Amino acid sequence: MYLLYLFFFLMIRRPPRSTLSSSSAASDVYKRQILYNTVGYLCYSSYNVGFYYSGYVQDAYKLKHGGSSNDVQANDVFFAVHGLVITIVTAAQCCIYERAAQTVTKTAMAVSAGCVLLVVIYVFVILSGEATETGVWSWLQWLYFLSYIKLFISVIKYVPQVYMNWQRKSTNGWNIYNVVLDFTGGFLSIAQLVLDAIVKESWSSATGNPVKFGLGFASMFFDVIFMVQHYCLYNPKNRAKQLEGHNNPLLPNDVNTTRSSRPSEQHTLV
What we know:
Shape: globular
Order of helices and strands: HHHHHHHHHHH
Strand content: under 5%
């Protein structure tokens, strides 16, 4: 189960194959998502690495959860770090290669800068005060705060794409297969948490790692919206048929009118 959900999530951590032209459904939000993903994966990587490798964090977690160990696995660490590396590489390519008129919006920059600023302020508060093991101003809660930022970013980065698809009444230039993979990965991620809880006979797997559950649910929720938009509301095949019928009307009256006009045209020429 671990490897399956990891495989599906890793398959979508690639730049889209669609052409990011000004008329593409992906063009206007792609660079915004790169910025959001960079901040999000940086936070989520720190969260998973801290929970998986830090003995201090693991002891604090046990103290808070009655001796239960946290369920962050090696595949969780690899997923987050892999996503961060791929996002950084993609961001570097966007800076090097031509990007036409595509720019990152001021809103995206402000939101990202605000998230980073909150993280830095949290660190200064912990360092300047008396840090506790499990209190609000502890390193354990700081890591949880990083994971919440990742969840927040994951939610807001989906909304512009939903709005743009609705506004354009089209998903042209957008790769729907990434959505299918993302939905499958989200489902398997939640399934892993549920199976771990069943095996341990405790829901600490879900309650102790709420962001993993939240990320899986958010992915599935928005992916369902995307699939409805693509396959039902703005199906490219249906739109193509409509355009073809509009450009090539097959009306009997037009055909008869054309045929009836030909003799007179020939007579005039003669």
